Amino acid sequence: LDIRLKPNEVIPEWDGNPDTLAKWFSLLDKLAARGIEIADQLPYVVPFRLTKEAKTWFEALNSADQTYLMGHWVEFKRVLGEFFWTPEWITRAKSAAHEARYRSHGHSRETPVQFLLRKKDLIDAAYQWTDHDIIGEIAQSAPQQWKLVIDHTHMHDWTAYLMAIKEKENMLDD
């Protein structure tokens, strides 16, 4: 069994779409958490996984900045995020997170769990909230009947909340 990681297989490409940047960062952070060696090598490989606007952005940096960022993952993320997450984008992302509702337009067939995951992705893209705050925002935008089935006020752990919704999904589904 060859467990060595191959960058092209484990590091997804990113095209410069700010709507997918938080999820891309999350995947790379999970990869970096596998060990210090991987975390140290990540910024050297990531630029080669950039495409389209992201690649153009990186190639437009001077060589000293490229070299520095390729040796510092946290700084790479900060600079990349500052460039692509403009104040206008952040405002739109926050609005989208707050306005998302269960089975809203374009999501008429989603399950309660699918709603939770969609809403959490929107929140994660716009904020760095605790599990408790995420659960509170989701509960606020969920149908009223959910509050009768799930006591959101005592939920502080995302995984436990997700499991509680899954266990009672048939009672929450219209």
Question: Which terms would index this structure?
Answer:
elongated; 12 helices; mainly alpha; 174 residues
Unreliable stretches (pLDDT < 50, length at least 5) are none
Task: Calculate the terminal CA-CA distance, rounded to whole Å.
Answer: 47 Å
- Give the tally of β-strands: 0
Helix content: 55-70%
Whole-angstrom Rg: 19 Å
* Major beta-sheet overview: none
Structural class from helices and strands? mainly alpha
Which strand-content bin applies to the residues? Answer: under 5%
- Average pLDDT figure: 93
DSSP summary: helix tally: 12
Query: H/E element string?
Result: HHHHHHHHHHHH
Shape: elongated
Give a quick summary of the entry:
With 174 residues, the protein is mainly alpha-helical.
Notes on the structure:
The chain has 174 residues and is mainly alpha-helical. The protein contains twelve helices and no strands. Helix 2 (21-32) packs across helix 3 and helix 7 packs antiparallel against helix 8. It is elongated.
List the helices and strands and how they pair.
Blueprint: H1 7-10, H2 21-32, H3 36-45, H4 52-60, H5 63-69, H6 73-84, H7 87-99, H8 112-126, H9 131-141, H10 144-149, H11 158-167, H12 169-172
Helix pairs in contact: 2-3, 7-8
